[in-house]
Specification:
Elements lengths: L5 H69 L3 E5 L5 E4 L1 H7 L3 H4 L4 H7 L9 E2 L5 E10 L5 E10 L1 H47 L4 H28 L7 E4 H11 L1 H4 L3 E8 L5 E4 L1 H17 L4 E12 L6 E9 L27 H11 L3 E7 L3 E9 L22 H6 L4 E3 L5
Parallel strand pairs: 7-9, 7-13
Antiparallel strand pairs: 1-2, 1-5, 3-4, 4-5, 6-8, 9-10, 10-12, 11-12
Length: about 425
């Protein structure tokens, strides 16, 4: 019987124990590896989800940035953003237009310098840009989310339309006050004029046998009649009667007014042009009053073109900048001397005239009649190049649709029609399309 040494048995046990420990450690390591692999897979999924969410947020932020940029660039108000040192960091397209510089010439420069170059550093209201627009400046501080000063914001608001409305309102109030005063004076003058005319007629009757003295009485009567016509025009200015409105052919009104003005055109080299949009072939108005308006505007245009020029009468339907549907535009344009800027606010005032023989009531009556039609009259003029006076009336739709009629040829026969009265060489019709 062989007996192994005790030390060999102990070594074997230790070796077995070491292998078991190694197996346990390997199993633990394998389990840890599987756990780590599973966690990495989970982290990969979470990272992919977060990347996708981040991408969506980036796309959303980019779309929002582009949208906000489009809004800022589409604003009609000029927008300048300054940092804490007063240097411009952002400018929109309207800001470029008002300042009169390219964006690259604005960004990074001082606001004060840019405003000085644009001549917008004054303190009045409104300021006028180099392009002729009336603007108002408004400056605001920018604050961060924690309330710290983060720069400033300058808004350049175009107030040209507002200024025009203010001027129109002031003119209306001024003319109403003057009209009330003129109306009272006219009534007060008419009473003694009636007495003067009565006594003048009695003198003419009693002086049948004295022709020289009778002539004096006739001069008195003639002067009274002139005064009465002037007072009639004054009363027409104060309260024009436009209660007989109905549909009329636009071109027929123009031709009638030209016929009444034929005496003023006859000995001139003025070409007359008619442009009537088929959509504006009919107009709702008081025909008699509108002829008076057109006649006064035509005569003014003829006097503004001594000797030669082009007189254009046009009618069209156009959309206003403000909502409310189309408006009817009736324009009288000339290529005459134009109106000085200092006189434009006065041309509708009673008794204001630049002609020695004028009474100054023509345009005042025009303004009153147009106001009575619930319209307005716009003035565009350049000295030395001409003037356009545009009557803007609310468009009234007909209850029954009316097709645009065929435009008749102007009557060029001798003795009839406007062309016969003012000479065929003066008259030109221009075709228009719908």
């Amino acid at each position: 019987m062989n007996v192994q040494p005790i030390s060999a048995t102990a070594d074997s046990d230790l070796l077995h124990e070491a292998f078991r420990s190694f197996d346990d450690a390997a199993a633990t390591l394998q389990q840890s590896y599987q756990t780590m692999t599973s966690r990495l897979e989970q982290l990969d999924v979470e990272l992919a989800d977060r990347n996708e969410a981040l991408s969506r947020n980036l796309r959303t932020n980019e779309e929002l940035r582009e949208h906000l940029t489009a809004i800022v660039e589409s604003l009609s108000t000029g927008l300048l953003v300054m940092d804490t040192e007063g240097l411009i960091t952002r400018c929109n397209q309207a800001g470029e237009q008002f300042i009169g510089l390219k964006r690259g010439q604005i960004i990074g420069r001082s606001l004060a310098v840019c405003l000085r170059e644009a001549e917008l550093d004054g303190g009045g209201y409104p300021l006028t840009t180099q392009q002729g627009a009336a603007v108002a400046l408004s400056k605001r501080d920018l604050r961060s989310s924690d309330g710290r000063h983060a720069g400033s914001l300058l808004l350049i608001q175009d107030v040209t339309a507002v200024r025009e409305l203010e001027d129109r309102l002031q003119r209306r109030n001024r003319l109403e006050a003057m009209g009330e005063m003129v109306g009272r004076i006219a009534h007060e003058i008419r009473n003694p004029l009636g007495s003067i005319e009565l006594f003048a007629s009695m003198l003419r009757r009693d002086l049948n046998g004295a022709p020289a003295l009778r002539g004096y009485a006739e001069h008195i009567s003639s002067s009274v009649h002139m005064m009465n016509r002037l007072l009639t025009n004054l009363l027409l200015y104060t309260k024009p009667d436009c209660s007989h409105g109905k549909w009329h052919e636009t071109e027929a009104l123009m031709l009638d007014a030209l016929t009444l003005a034929a005496h003023a055109v006859a000995n001139t080299r003025i070409d007359i042009r008619l442009k009537v949009d088929p959509l504006a072939s009919r107009i709702w108005c008081d025909a008699g009053q509108m002829k008076q308006v057109l006649l006064n505007l035509i005569l003014n245009s003829i006097h503004a073109m001594p000797g030669s020029g082009t007189l254009t009468l046009s009618a069209a339907l156009t959309e206003e900048q403000t909502p409310g549907g189309p408006v009817f535009r009736l324009s009288v344009s000339d290529t005459g001397v134009g109106i000085a800027p200092a006189q434009r606010s006065k041309i509708f005032d009673p008794f204001f005239t630049t002609r020695d023989e004028g009474t100054g009531l023509g345009l005042a009556i025009v303004h009153a009649i147009v106001e009575a039609h619930r319209g307005r009259i716009d003035v565009e003029s350049v000295e030395g190049r001409g003037t356009t006076l545009t009557i803007v009336l609310p468009h009234r739709r007909e209850s029954v649709r009316i097709e645009a009629p065929e435009r008749p040829e102007p009557d060029r026969g001798a003795g009839t029609g406007v062309s016969a009265m003012i000479g065929e060489r003066h008259f030109v019709e221009e075709e228009t399309s719908a």
